[in-house]
Design a protein that fits this description.
By secondary structure, the protein is α/β, with parallel strands linked by helices. About 30% of the residues lie in helices and about 20% in strands. The strands form 3 sheets. Strands 2-1-3-4 form a 4-stranded parallel sheet, with helices on both faces. A hairpin with a 2-residue loop joins strand 9 and strand 10.
Length: about 230
């Protein structure tokens, strides 16, 4: 999601993502934890209220620090989940907090068992290819580095708002290597897919750029991203 987690517009994509899965949704507002307890708590409450309204079981996993992310009880909270949702905030803090921890191992286990990874804003950015994956693909420069959950794409969020700052889109686009995929997601817009085939949901559009050019897709459209070059 480019923005707008836990708002009514997201009901359709979350229903499609869950697709009959019956486990709970684990919610981690970790990316917001540097903004203080009030902000962290507000995101947690919004999430639980949102899922309760939709009749979906949800649990808050209060991970704020790497020490929290290494706690066994927090890692166990991801067991049996249908979806693990990382909401917005600071992507660097989120990545540094969870990467290589017991929670990260539990996330990988959950995904291997069929859980859905979901992220909004910072939570979406961490799904981007990692710096090491870019190097392996022969790409030496770039814009967004993540934790490598989707190893051939860099994601952008709030993409419709980027153009509000004069020249910023041009700067961003100039730093995207021609051999790498970039997917820019507007606010209150989302994509759902398996890493290669995607469908667009929500109110805005998605910009997809690769060596073959740039395409814009709106809600209901589908597109593909190849991991070959």
């Amino acid at each position: 999601m480019g923005s707008g987690e836990f708002e009514p517009w997201s009901n359709d994509i979350e229903a499609a993502a869950l697709d009959g899965r019956t486990g709970p949704v684990a919610v981690l507002p970790t990316a917001s934890s540097t903004d203080g307890e009030d902000v962290f708590g507000r995101w947690g409450r919004m999430a639980l209220e949102h899922y309760a309204t939709a009749g979906i079981d949800a649990r808050l996993v209060p991970v704020k620090t790497r020490e929290d992310a290494d706690r066994e009880d927090h890692a166990r909270a991801l067991e049996g989940t249908a979806m693990v949702f990382f909401s917005g905030g600071k992507p660097q803090h989120l990545a540094a907090t969870i990467h290589g921890t017991r929670l990260w191992e539990a996330l990988e286990d959950a995904l291997n068992e069929g859980a859905v990874f979901a992220g909004c804003s910072a939570g979406a950015l961490i799904a981007s290819q990692s710096r090491e994956q870019r190097r392996d693909r022969g790409v030496r420069t770039g814009w967004v580095f993540g934790l490598g959950l989707v190893p051939h794409i860099s994601f952008g969020v709030h993409w419709d708002k980027v153009k509000v700052i004069p020249g910023l889109r041009s700067v961003v686009m100039s730093r995207i290597p021609s051999g790498s995929w970039f997917v820019g997601i507007d606010e209150r817009t989302a994509i759902l897919g398996d890493g290669h085939r995607w469908r667009v949901y929500g109110l805005g559009s998605v910009m997809v750029r690769h060596a073959g050019g740039t395409l814009i897709h709106r809600g209901g459209a589908t597109f593909e991203t190849s991991d070959k070059g």
